[in-house]
Design goal:
Helices cover 27% and strands 21% of the residues. The chain has 371 residues and is α/β, with parallel strands linked by helices. α1 crosses α4.
Length: 371
């Protein structure tokens, strides 16, 4: 057996900058910059960042659009393999000038000024998704024999509408899939028995939540501690961040499934139903780190009935490094989408004591009678 010096982890998809990155190659920098400007202006529905280089300093230049130094946000960072993604967490995708940096997916521009230069960079064409014709309308001879370019769409540079439509569909089509996460493993001290095993809907509560995810077509796992023997082996992920409560459960799931967005639900909210999660999914904003409900009882975001996007993982770890293990504090201080349930906020009520349980059971019973 081969000895592994370090634990092998599942790495997030995408490149060094983002999970959705498009590197433009084959044209001079001014042509690429002009194209970036047109794309960002004509796609207001999604947030796109531009990755370029400052020709004077050689530093990476990350911009929200390519306009001018008054109207865009600019971040200068030194070239480093590990410090690029955190700057771009709140964007849906990035456009990269491949004259300076590589990207996970490439868009080839046919511009005569870079014909010879492109011929020396064929090793960079690992995942070409689009070809844009500029002052050249046919593939160069050295590109015609490349199997990887077969069936790649070709759009004229003048057709900015079609280019923007392609980029929008590219980013939208790579939307992270959802994974249900049922948070169990609490000590249930006030209740006196495991809240995940209580039955409000003729089955243990964790099974009820699992059945909702199943109806929605969402696979699910159970977040549990090593002490929660009832759940071990039933699609469980045992907490690796021990002693942090639900915060540790969320981190443990995200560590194992870094390419999924997780939709969390604790086991002590018996009033949740399919319509509640459908609303959360319908109003999901993947450009934010999370989509959640506003809880009028606390006047804060509801942290545990939430969709956490993959980019939330590094944010949660950052808060942990600062000494915080409260999911609500992360939401309050981050770029999120919050949904007002208005008259249905009672669905967020959690049950912690036998008295709470009796009250909620009466409400559920009355509701069932009227249905």
């Amino acid at each position: 057996m081969q000895h592994l010096k370090h634990t092998k982890l599942t790495k997030p998809i995408g490149g060094l900058f983002h999970r959705n990155e498009l590197a433009f190659i084959g044209a001079p920098c001014d042509v690429i910059a002009e194209l970036f400007n047109d794309i960002v202006i004509n796609i207001p529905s999604i947030e796109l960042a531009v990755i370029d280089a400052d020709h004077n300093s050689g530093e990476i230049d990350i911009r929200q659009g390519y306009i001018d130094k008054i109207k865009y946000h600019q971040y200068n960072i030194k070239e480093n393999h590990f410090n690029k993604r955190p700057f771009l967490l709140n964007y849906s995708g990035v456009l990269i000038n491949a004259n300076h940096f590589n990207g996970e997916a490439q868009i080839v521009i046919l511009n005569s000024k870079k014909k010879e230069s492109l011929s020396r960079k064929l090793d960079r064409l690992t995942n070409v998704v689009l070809i844009i014709t500029d002052d050249v309308t046919e593939l160069y001879d050295y590109l015609k024999g490349m199997d990887k370019l077969i069936n790649v769409p070709i759009i004229p540079k003048s057709n900015i509408t079609s280019i923007c439509k392609f980029i929008t569909e590219f980013v939208s089509g790579r939307k992270p899939s959802l994974l249900g996460c049922i948070l169990t493993g609490g000590k249930s001290t006030r209740m006196g028995q495991d809240k995940a095993l209580l039955e409000y809907h003729n089955m243990p509560q964790y099974e009820y939540v699992k059945s909702i995810f199943f109806e929605l077509g969402i696979p699910s796992v159970i977040s549990a501690t090593e002490d929660s023997q009832s759940y071990i082996g039933i699609d469980s992920v045992i907490d690796e961040f021990v002693g942090l409560g639900p915060f540790g459960g969320i981190l443990s799931i995200m560590k194992k499934y870094p390419n999924s967005a997780i939709i969390t639900c604790p086991c002590d909210v018996p009033m949740v139903d399919k319509s509640l999660f459908s609303k959360l999914i319908d109003e999901r904003d993947t450009s934010k780190i999370a989509t959640c409900f506003y809880n009028p009882e606390t006047d804060f975001p509801e942290p545990l009935i939430t969709i956490w996007e993959p980019q939330a993982y590094s944010v949660l770890l950052e808060f942990l490094a600062l000494g915080y293990s409260c999911p609500r504090k992360v939401l309050i201080n981050s770029n999120i989408k919050m949904i007002d349930l208005k008259g249905e906020s009672y669905r967020l009520v959690n049950v912690n004591t036998p008295e709470d349980k009796t009250k909620v059971e009466a409400i559920i019973s009355k509701f069932n009678e009227t249905c």
